[in-house]
Amino acid sequence: MGRMLFAALTCVMAGMVLVGEMAADGISERAKKLHFSSLVIDTHDDTTQRFLDGDFDLGARNGLGSIDIPRMKEGGLGAIFFSVWIPSKVRGPEAVRRALMQIDAIHDQVGKHSNDLILVTTAEGIREAHKHGKIAALIGVEGGHMIDSDLGVLRKFAGLGARYMTLTHTGNTEWADASTAAPAHNGLSPFGKDVIREMNRLGMIVDISHVSDKTFADVLETSKAPVFASHSSCRAICNVPRNMTDEMIRALAAKGGVIQINYHIGFLSQEFRDAEKAHPEWDKAIALEVQKRCGNKEGCQLIQGDIITREYVLRGDLPRVEWTKIIEHIDHAVKVAGIDHVGLGSDFDGANMPFGMEDATKLPQITNALLEKGYSEGDVRKILGENTLRLMADVERVSRELSAAQ
Ligand SMILES: [Zn+2]
After folding, report:
1. For residues 289 and 275, what is the distance between their CA atoms, to the nearest angstrom?
2. Domains of the chain by residue range
3. CATH code for 28-269+323-405?
4. Ligand 1 mean position to 305 CA, how many Å?
5. Using CA atoms in the order 270, 276, 278, 284, what is the torsion angle rounded to 10 degrees?
6. Which among 106, 111, 124, 127 would be 20 to 30 A from 286, CA to CA?
7. Tens digit of each residue's pLDDT (9 = 90 or more) over 199-218
8. Which of 249, 209, 184, 250 is nearest to 350 (CA)?
9. 301 - beta bridge partners?
């Protein structure tokens, strides 16, 4: 190859790389500086399921899914709640056993990657981890069925580091109604109220994502500490039972709570939701294809559900949802609840992500978009993580007060 031609080619290639970087990024220096100096907290990730599949390395950059250490670092994620989840239909001692297995798996992963991760249980712990350049790993139990109606099991989970519990998943528990099942208890049963009181005492955040509107109201009446929705969005924008009405968001905020916006396209976009509802046969087809690709590997199932749904979108069967829809929900929630009551609960590795928010590396876009919308730097920091830290500190303070009063 002649020297001139080589030089010209190198120039073209360098130009291509440059254009590529600009197109892929588009984030202002100010946004980068703000994002990477903030504590960014995600209160709901389903990556734990992948730990159990046996073929996933959290320390390596993965082509599939949304979360691993290299991508968390690249996206400036400072703290992550790993979700402990099993389907609502699994009950009794088997539910407890499987929950303990997942808690073990989280401890195991954090131990294996102790240069990058540290298991923490408090707001102060998250700040300390951040100071030492580590990502704080926290545990959230997604579904009250896993305590098998036994406060002793709840205490065991808390002792092992679980810092929140979502009261139900998609089905009712023996003591609380879910948003996606026929009501059986008119909200919380008397034992359900005992669960809330014990969580307050233990310093576990009560998570109202997934519960029915009546359960939510009962929780607000019963809980002595502020509560949160670890991964819910706004019903005013996308009308699904899993999202919160403006009235609920206001009531949550009035008690000092936080709504952590969920990125799942079926909760973000009414258009997507309507299309999904109009074609229940696609849901079944997707589930069948997932089964074919994954068998019983649950982590694989969650990831492939996202991938196959995107295939439907790409061939035009389902509407395309952009990541900017997340900003719409954040902005709406801020208008309703005030700036101190909104945060981030992605549902990464457990849901269908919008275009442009495929994984944790895309998080700085949220900071950039909020700045562009005119949010102050202090307000952006609140949404990214400070609101969650304040809530955690409040829950911890109530726990200390209740323990001291005993
Ligand atoms: Zn969920």
Report:
1. 19
2. 28-269+323-405, 271-320
3. 3.20.20.140
4. 14
5. -160
6. 106
7. 999 999 999 999 999 999 99
8. 209
9. none
